[in-house]
Amino acid sequence: MKNLLFLTILLLFGCNKDDNQAQTDWLIPFDEVLDGGPGKDGIPSVDAPQFDNVSDISFLNDNDLVIGMFHNGVSKAYPHQILDWHEIVNDDLSDISYALTYCPLTGTGIAWDRVIDGSKTSFGVSGKLYNTNLMPYDRATDSYWSQIRLDCVNGTQINKVINTYPIIETTWSTWKAAYPNSEVMNLTTGSNRNYGSYPYGDYRTNHSNIIFPVSNTDDRLPAKERALIVMGDQTKKVYSIELFAEDRAIEDTIDGTTIIVIGSKSKNFIVAYEKGNLTEVVAVTDQLPTIATDTNGNRINLDGTIESGPLQDVQLTTFNSFIGYFFALGAFYEVEIYE
Question: What predicted TM-score, i.e. pTM, was given to this entire model?
Answer without folding.
Answer: 0.91
